[in-house]
Design goal:
Length: 208
């Protein structure tokens, strides 16, 4: 581990041993988590979304159906290659524009703003100081009333600097983020935050 986050070699070794090291394509836990994630998005569609730590692109493939543009990043080149091939297999009529970048949470943020940022299973690779900085940068790069979705495994992984509970505790105390919704069980934490005043889905659709 580096001083601020897990080293690149950790992820390169994981993908060298198994192209799907976390079972994104095979485990019901992962399928269910993606379904919960997509259901938690408060809008039907987003203009410009950002997904750091996209891994092999299983969530990316679902997000692109809800986004005009999606920027996906990962620290591992093999993961980005797999994600790119997964997106390429999707019909063009069913996806927005997708861009892949070699980038890791904790690096300087791109000079653009997003109406959706998805932090799925990526934040606990940083230490607490670096993560607080990353959340502050996320706020700075969210459009007004943009959404930040945060979802993480709760069980302790010895190699990870933080637990999922610690990650979400930091998110909930980040200035500029207001909680909109959440789902918590023994395995995972999912929280949706808004950069501004939260408005319910029913309210946005004028449902009384």
């Amino acid at each position: 581990m580096s001083e601020t986050r897990l080293a690149t070699d950790y992820f390169d070794d994981m993908y060298a041993r198994d192209p799907d090291p976390w079972g994104f394509t095979t485990r019901w836990y992962e399928q269910r988590k993606r379904a919960l994630t997509m259901a938690a998005l408060p809008k039907t569609r987003y203009h410009n979304a950002f997904e750091p730590g996209c891994s092999i692109g299983t969530l990316s493939a679902e997000l692109t159906d809800r986004c005009d543009r999606l920027v996906c990043t990962d620290i591992a080149a093999q993961a980005l290659d797999s994600a790119g091939r997964r997106i390429d297999r999707l019909p063009e009529s069913e996806r927005g524009a997708v861009e892949f970048r070699r980038w890791a949470l904790g690096d300087p943020w791109p000079d653009e703003h997003f109406d959706l940022i998805v932090l799925s299973e990526v934040c606990y690779y940083l230490d607490s100081v670096s993560l607080r900085t990353a959340f502050a940068q996320a706020v700075d790069h969210l459009e007004p009333n943009g959404a930040l979705l945060c979802v993480h495994w709760r069980r302790k992984v010895p190699e990870y600097p933080l637990s999922g509970d610690h990650v979400h505790a930091i998110a909930r105390t980040t200035h500029g983020l207001t909680a909109l919704a959440g789902y918590h069980d023994e395995d995972l934490l999912l929280d949706v935050f808004i950069a501004g005043d939260p408005i319910s889905v029913a309210t946005t659709e004028h449902i009384e």
